[in-house]
Amino acid sequence: MADDYELEDTDSFVDKAKKSHKADKEYWAKIYRAGIDDAKFLSDDPYAQWMKGDYVDRVSTGRPAITIDQLSQFIHQVANDIRMNTPTINVIPSGYESDPETAEAYKGIIKNIEYSSNADNAYDTGVFNAIKQSLGFIRVDHRYIDDTFNQELFIDRVINPFSCWLDKESVAIDGSDAKHATVIEKISVKEFKRLYPGKEVSCFEDDSSKSHKDDDLIAIAEHFCVEETERTIGIDAQGNVSDASPKGKFVKTRKVYDRKIMRYKLSGNAVLEESVFPGQYIPIVPVYGEENWIDGERNLFSLIRKSKDAQMMFNYWKSLETEILMKAPIAPIMAAEGQVEDFKDDWLNPSKAMVLRYKAKDLDDNLIGAPQRLEPPTIPTGIVNASRGVVDDIKATMGIYGSSLGQRSNETSAVAINARKEEGDVATFHFADNLTKSITQVGRVLVSAIPEIYDTARILRIIGEEDQPKRIGVNGELAEDQEETIDLKKGKYDVKVVTGAPFTTLRQESAQALQSLMTAYPDMMPIMGDLYFKYSDFAGAQQMASRFKKVVDPKFLDPEDREELEQEPIDPEKEQMVNLIQQGQQAIQQMQQEMGNLKSQLDNKQMEAQIKAKELEIKAADVEIKRESLALDAYKTKSDVELKNKEIEADLIKTRIEAKSQLTPDMVIMDGDLNGGEPPIAAIMNQFAQTISNGLLTMAEMQAQGNQAVIQAIQNPPPREVIRDENGNIAGVR
Fold first, then answer.
1. Is 662 in the same domain as 700?
2. Residues 6+ apart with CB under 8 A from 126
């Protein structure tokens, strides 16, 4: 409907909207009146929690009328429990062309909408109103982004739930079946003229012929309604579904309806604005309190509805108790007739008189005693017990008891205390559950509207699982490192809401769990240290997580983290250290080969020395030669032991070098044992080379000494005396 429609058409539409709104008001009137009474009962009006007549009677006679609110604490307890468990909207693929990646993109877009529009405020306000006054509302809207023609969706809170009127035919707990809704907004006549110049000033709820001043407030209506267009579809023998035409051959046909949400701004006699709201749902979502249906009639109850009588009783008993206590310091005085009449003012206010005078004689002129103060009135135990009992009545009508409020009880174990607290949470769980259902409907509204609002090729910001922002390209646009664009118009998606602790709470729990794990197993720090700092909240934790990630073995990192580290430019000092370590590993391999060769050569020399010694022993057949040979063997044995010690010492040094060389460059740099004036690997290699050099020198000296002893034994044999037998034959040498 356009603004230039004929007047009779406009009048008929406005009248139709007024008639629909009037019917909705009549249906909801009883529920709204009860909700307004609940809200007023918790206000700061002096007689809000009193029967007005009782309050006036007590105050007019100078008696106290005390209000001690017991109900607000229960409302805040339930509302704050719900706030601590924020619902999360999840998007699930449901259609033929749907896919998990697009569903994840929808979820990220919705989460970004929630963040940018402070949706928590809308959710909290909606459920708080439902708890306090039986119903609240959440609404979804859209707007232009800065100085562009791109639009965005946002979630807004409804401060006054009694300004929203939903279709009286709606029976769904989340209002998803509503065919229309009206939101009444009151603005000044001056503001109306500014917003709608040239339009006649007319109030939607009052007689349009009434004249208005600039400061007067008038009501205009924001009216949403569903328009359905009927069409027929058919299925052919091959199973193809299409619009049915008279000439087509279809096995079966049926009627379907295309939904369109119309949005109007209405005065009392004109259509001020008209547009189409994106999606297929009325964007006004109710949050109901306790729902009860009787003979097809809906009833909604707040948390305090059934506790108001007990609260008024509590106020009455406490006022009566206070009244009795106020009289105790000024207990009544008994005096004979005529004794105090002449001094009436003093006796009426004895605290103001320094001297209390009286007549010592009565009217018959007889002497009488002085006036006497009577015993002060005592507070009946029944009144005290009644006020205490009423407190229990208040708790019983709500199902919330002391342990749910943090009060001590008979339970001693943590399990028993938590079980008792959960009983109170279960008694009021329907408020949290109704909010979850309403947020699910908010998700449906968003999912159906997103393809129409975000309909151009552009880059969008989304929020991931861990509250990390990310950019994606949609409808043909590609973000950085994005391989394929996301088509938001392709496929159908459902919504599921999961209630749990917010990510901030989960992160704190993760940090505590990791801290406990690493306290018990310190060796886990090099593996999970980056995660511990990532989920910590102290200053600098994220920077520490980023640095610690660089020293974690890459095989423990996620693929994206490994790619990020590989793409980082290498620090020159870090690159130099990597080269030194590689050179050190090569040097170790060369030294191992040289040590093997030296050991082989040494074995050959030892064998040659033994052969020569045997030859001398046989040729000389001399005891002295044997003694020299044994001495030589002993000397060689000692040299072997010393050489073995040197080899063990070299192996130990080599083992330390290999252990250090297996560390990542950053760990080498962080190792306190290696921080010196020169690169640590160079110092270790110098020490190792010196040890090898000393070992080779020792072996050379031992070999030279052994060879020299053998040569001397051969070249300079000791003097010998030949011994002959009695026949002149040689018998030996000495």
1. yes
2. 136, 137, 138, 157, 158, 161, 285, 287, 435, 438
Same domain, 314 and 419: yes
pTM of the predicted model as reported, rounded to 2 decimal places: 0.64
* The domain boundary residue, chosen from 426, 458, 489: 426
- The answer to whether 346 touches 358, Cβ cutoff 8 Å, is no
Does residue 234 fall inside a structural domain?
Answer: yes
Provide the sign of the torsion angle of the four alpha carbons 172, 173, 175, 176, taken in this order: negative
Residue % of the chain over a pLDDT of 70: 59
Q: Which two tokens stand for residue 455?
A: 């309909």
Residues 6 or more apart whose Cβ sits within 8 Å of residue 384: 321
Taking Cα atoms as reference points, which of 268, 395, 383 lies closest to residue 322?
A: 383
Instruction: Give per-residue pLDDT as tens, 640-686.
Output: 666 666 667 666 666 665 555 555 444 444 454 544 545 555 555 56
Tell me, yes or no, whether 317 and 194 share the same domain: no
Helix segments in 568-622, DSSP class H: 572-620
Claim to verify: residue 654 and residue 558 sit in the same structural domain: no
Lowest mean pLDDT across 154-158, 405-409, 535-539, 554-558: 405-409
Distance between CA 462 and CA 480 in Å, rounded? 14
User: What pLDDT digit, counting tens, does each position of 344-396 carry?
Assistant: 777 676 666 666 777 777 777 777 777 776 666 677 788 878 888 888 888 88
Helix (H, G, I), strand (E, B) or coil at 285: strand
- Biggest alpha carbon distance in the chain? 187
Give the whole-angstrom CA distance, residue 327 versus residue 376: 7
pLDDT, average across residues 64-78: 92
567 vs 232: CA distance, rounded Å: 57
Q: 2: pLDDT confidence band, cut at 50, 70 and 90?
A: very low
Question: Residue 560: which domain range?
Answer: 503-567
Residues 603 and 524 in one domain: no
DSSP labels for 614-679? HHHHHHH--HHHHHHHHHHHHHHHHHHHHHHHHHHHHHHHHHHHHHHHTS-HHHHHH-GGG-SSS-
Residue whose C-alpha is closest to residue 499's, from 88, 124, 68: 88
Q: What share of the chain is helix, strand, coil (3-state, %, to 5)?
A: 50, 15, 30
Distance CA 180, CA 568 (A): 57
Same domain, 713 and 608: yes
- Same structural domain, 537 and 599: no
Per-residue model confidence (pLDDT) at position 566: 57
Please name which of 435, 414, 433, 415 lies closest in space to residue 425, comparing C-alpha atoms.
433
Query: Does residue 342 sit in the same domain as residue 419?
Result: yes
CA distances to 63, 538, 550, 721 from 41, rounded to whole Å, are 22, 44, 61, 138
Q: Does 607 fall in a domain?
A: yes
Residue 443 lies in a domain: no
Nearest CA among 658, 678, 464, 647 for reference residue 576: 678
- Structure token pair of residue 462: 């989304």
| Cα atoms found within 13 Å of the Cα of residue 604, Cβ hemisphere only | 6
Q: Using an 8 Å Cβ cutoff, are 49 and 390 in contact? A: no
Tell me which amino acid residue 454 is: Y
In a domain, 81, yes or no: no
Q: How many domains does the chain have?
A: 4
**Residue 177 to residue 183: CA distance in whole angstroms:** 17
Does an H or E element contain 165, and which? strand 164-166
